[in-house]
Amino acid sequence: MTTASPSTAVAISPWHAIVVALKAEGVTHVFGLPGNPKHLLNDLADHSDIRFVLMRDEKSAVACAYAWGRLTGQPGVVFSNPGPGITNLVTGLLEATCGSVPVVAIANGVVQQQEGMGAFQELDSRALMKPVTKWMERVADIRRLPWVVRRAFATARSGRPGAVYVELPSDLADQHAVFPPYVSSQTWGPTRPAADAVARAAALLRGARQPVIVCGGGAVVAGAADEVARLADRLGATVLTTPSGRGIYPEEGPNALGQVGLYFTEAGKAWYDGADVMLVLGSRLEAFSTNSWALYPGKARMIQVDIDPLAIGMNWVPEVGVVGDVALAVRDIEAELDRLGQQRDDGRAVRLAQTSRAFIERCQADAREPLHPVRTRQMLEAVNRIFGHDTILMKENGGADLWCYYWPYYRVLDVGDCVPMAEQTAMGMGAIGAIGAKMARPDKQVVCFVGDGAMQMSIVEMATAAQWKCGVTWVVLNNAAFGWVQYNQVLTRRPLVNTGFEVVSDFAAIARAQGCHGITVTEPSQVDDAVQQARSLNRQGVPVLIDVHIARHEYSDHFVAVHHERIDH
Question: Does domain 195-354 have CATH number 3.40.50.1260?
Fold first, then answer.
């Protein structure tokens, strides 16, 4: 339902009008950096209770907005200023658009009257933002602002969500106008798939001997967790996910066998390779989710469901393509299976549950072996066990922290409790985004496993976490290198040059200097105590960094196999 702000005959500034719109859209937090306070900041303080979260860098602001959008389904809002303030938004907005995460960026732009004349911090923001957003607008007439903001919010969260960008030139800030009551944006009901496509999909699934369900981020966006769980149980199908799809199904559930592509573990890949029908829900099947399209289950017939018609057959071409909302599509497939009289395969369901549980127990036993140097898998198991349920996993990007992608070493225990990066894999976004995640879901615990390389890109924001009393835990997997890059040198027997850090940061000391709690772990016997301290302090609103000195180049078996295969060929 749309709502209107109270009508007024008083002329107000454009930034005041934007604040009116943000309130009507339900915005509670804006992440950003200030410029002249007359651009947004004064009006936020004077006319709303919206919190302005002061970051240390614009890139950080987008990271927090990204986490907010992923966890709430509502656009995370970021504010920035001309020139470098705008260019610093680009990476995060690109990640949001790739990852189907709703983000609204609002910027104070260069003065309109001097455009093209060499104005201070002049930038062609239209050309810059067009390839990284769903939609962008540079406002020329302040009277259009209500339409522009409404359009921005609707676009960010409609269909396949993504980032949008709105810019208000600096010299328009002193203008005033009488604005009509603001009518908030709305998204229309989800699209129901065509009945004939649903019927073909159900017929394939009904006859499947070993079905697998692969869920991408589109399944999460659609809120299809209940539907996926019901269908998987009914079919006796394993639930595998892309990184973006993680959190659609509890990973201790009987049908969970982890992730796909680069992130396979032994049990998941074996079941996947034996599939005869593969149901893909809300994924474009991009490179990392398929190991560059090299890991198709050879005998499987594929059904692909996506709200975006252009995603169907973008890479692997399905036998059945179903265009529509994932949740509605799965419900319709269930109804068609009812009509066909399909029954639950209890034997297959039991075999799958036994496979899942046996592999979890095997990996847990392995991870608990206290070997020296500390292994990443020991840290993962300890955090998973001690933090337990209601813990959001913030994903980072790097060789060591990739361990947390490999089920079941870390298991996302509850639906929705995972914030992954998209295929851009921008380093540092997860570590910083943990702050936005805690603000979006203060009822949840938040943990981020991050390599020492990525942490050095983001450590400035620890002070922000302390200022806002965001009780999050960063587990820094410290191997004194950009480990993944260096591993390629190891495999090709090249000298380890320009990939390692000769001066190693004392992360625990830096954490303490920024108002957080820092712990250094060098021995396996220290792991549990460090994690228990972190959880206890987090509950008091204290951010914690655990600096773990880990074994170098110790990776998952499948990660190693994939890299050896690439080198050998």
Answer: no
